[in-house]
Write a structure and sequence with these properties.
Blueprint lengths: L11 E5 L2 E8 L11 E8 L3 E8 L2 H12 L3 E4 L17
């Protein structure tokens, strides 16, 4: 896996330093008739401060934008098992 796609965007994101780029699903807040879902590409700083957001009506367009603009950042899979380094068990026998 080296890019965001329709099968991994819900548990992967791009990151570099304190910045993280995520894709999220949302809707129209206008209160009018129901609309199709919207996709939001959002860049966060320190997981809390929104730096940038762009809205897309199609998942494919949002993913293409993310991969073209942020694909050179590290791709982080939050479902990948953590490495066995560190933690309480690593020094218990020292």
């Amino acid at each position: 896996m080296n890019a965001m796609d329709k099968d991994n965007w819900d548990h992967c994101h791009y990151a570099t330093g304190p910045l993280k780029c995520i894709l999220s699903l949302g809707g129209d807040e206008s209160g009018q008739a129901p609309t199709s879902p919207l996709f939001f590409v959002t860049v966060l700083k320190d997981d809390a401060h929104e730096v940038f957001q762009k809205q897309f009506s199609r998942e494919e367009k949002a993913l293409n934008f993310m991969n073209e603009r942020y694909g050179h950042w590290d791709l982080i899979d939050t479902q990948a098992p953590l490495e066995e380094e560190g933690g309480c068990g690593s020094c218990a026998n020292k």
